[in-house]
Amino acid sequence: MNHNASPPPPPRRTRRIVLVGLAVLGIASAAFVVRRPLMMPAPRCMAGRWHGCLDTFNGVVLMTLVTLPLAVLVAWALARLRRAAGVTSAWRMSLAEVGMVHGTVPFLWLTMMPGAGAGIVPGRVSLVPLRDLVTMGPLGTVGNLLVFAALGFFAPMRFAALSSVPRILALGAGCSILVETAQYVLRLDRVSSVDDVLVNAAGAVLAALASRRWWRTAAEAPADRPRPAVGAPADRPRPAAEAPADQPPPAPTPAG
């Protein structure tokens, strides 16, 4: 008997349980650290006040977390409707649609918040790449990475046409250019920077790579369409037009 043989690797289920436990522990630790800043705007948000709630980063994040159960309920309702229609990937499609909206709209709201001189100071642009990264700081860099992270994560799960890194890069960059253009045109007292576009697009690509195993492929697209109802008549080719029964057959052609 060989006592020097290495023990078998742990089963996949055990590894998943360990990873889920570590993820829950990490989320709980992060919530313990940020609970005080997030709860600061809670009284104003509960009172329905704009100032101090929806015009602050902590207030927007708090409202995003509060509305998370509603987003899950909407995803469940969409998945149930799709399963009733016979769609195979009902849950994945529904979660992707709700995740794109719920994870992107709050960050767009933050980026479109007007500054103190909105409407007074002219629009400003910064077209030199990598110059603003130094002044952006770690918090600003992480925030810009997260602006279109949900879009990059869920879009290829929902649309097979976006299931490639170059297309996600183009999607993130295009959406970021629209945001920067809106900031400049609306004179929100914000700097429209090319570095914001680069970091936003990079965040979308990194998030897309994290969800690559769940990307929707072109082969799955026909299976995700609603199936016809049971007993519905199938489409049949129409028969060729037949001559009336009382019409005599054509006369034979005489031989040469």
Automatic annotation (TrEMBL):
Q: Which domain of life is it from?
A: Bacteria
Region described as Disordered: spans on this chain: 220-256
Q: Return the InterPro entries for the record.
A: VanZ-like (IPR006976)
Q: Which Pfam families match?
A: VanZ (PF04892)
Q: For the VanZ-like domain, which residue ranges apply?
A: 125-210
Keyword presence, Transcription: no
Keywords in alphabetical order, please: Membrane, Transmembrane, Transmembrane helix
| Compositional bias per record (Pro residues), positions renumbered to this chain | 246-256
Residues crossing the lipid bilayer are: 60-79, 100-121, 133-156
Q: Where does the record place Low complexity bias?
A: 228-245
Q: What is the name of this protein? A: VanZ-like domain-containing protein
Annotated organism of origin: Streptomyces purpureus
Taxonomically, what lineage is the organism?
Bacteria, Bacillati, Actinomycetota, Actinomycetes, Kitasatosporales
